[in-house]
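Entry 12.
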Amino acid sequence: MSFSKMLEILQERNEKKIVLIRLGMFYIATGRDAVLLHDKLNLKCTCFTDNVCKVGIPVIAIDKYIEKLDKTGYGYVIYNYNKDICYRGLSYYM
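Predicted 3D structure (tokens):
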């Protein structure tokens, strides 16, 4: 299963929450989650097409951004992605 397909499934399962997935040295959010994080936390949002956007939060800064996110009142989940194990490689944090 590809990373993008897995992310799509996780976003469907967590429809009312922001989904962040650790991928290497960043936590990634895409689509509506990326745009929301851009608007609420002023994160740089990169859009490849009209509906394909992403933001990245450096792993070393995640605590700072989680604190800010908690203040917004939005729910979120954080996963750890391991491409070698694929779907079973996701660890749920929140």
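Annotation: The radius of gyration is 12 Å. The CA atoms of residues 1 and 72 lie 33 Å apart.
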